[in-house]
Design a protein that fits this description.
With 155 residues, the protein is α/β, with parallel strands linked by helices. The protein has five helices and six strands; from the N terminus they run βαβαβαβαββα. Strands 3-2-4-1-5-6 form a six-stranded mixed sheet, sandwiched between helices. Strand 5 and strand 6 form a beta hairpin. It starts with a strand and ends with a helix.
């Protein structure tokens, strides 16, 4: 099982947009990352995102570039401060390749828990619009495969 974790792209301030939609730069970053992932031949069963517009927009932009995604769906439990344990349990049972588009600190806490650490032990530094790829091996252990940071990859 392959798992791709994506922090949403750069979003507007709450004063500028109470919904905190993506900025133009956030949209461009999501497009470029989607193009890069498509060039890698990434195939996903689905992309899941939180209920926040910035996560939904990021997921939809990436999915449009991949063209190999069966579904883009909003799921509960991916908001910034949601408990990671339900997502952890669900992912440990998952058999399909999926992408989660979410937020900090949730994504950072989720990775820590996937590796058996306490939720506040940061082991991966996420970047807006960046992607972290994990694989689960046959023994059920998670392995970090790679990290794409927009600051390094897309400039």
């Amino acid at each position: 099982m392959e798992l791709y974790l994506v922090q949403h792209g750069a979003s507007k301030s709450e004063a500028e947009d109470p919904q905190r939609s993506l900025t133009e730069e956030g949209k461009r970053t999501a497009e470029r990352m989607g193009e890069h992932l498509a060039a890698l031949g990434l195939v996903l069963d689905r992309i899941e995102h939180s209920d926040k517009p910035r996560a939904r927009q990021t997921a939809e932009i990436v999915a449009a570039k991949l063209r190999s995604v069966n579904r883009v769906v909003q799921v509960p439990g991916l908001a910034p401060n949601d408990d990671v344990e339900p997502t952890l349990l669900r992912l440990n049972e998952e058999t399909k390749n999926i992408m989660l588009v979410g937020h900090l600190p949730h994504l950072s806490r989720l990775v820590s828990r996937l590796f058996g650490l306490e939720r506040d032990q940061t082991i991966v530094r996420f970047h807006m619009g960046g992607v972290v790829k994990l694989d689960r091996d046959d023994a059920g252990r998670w392995v970090l495969c790679w990290i794409f940071s927009p600051e390094l990859l897309l400039r």
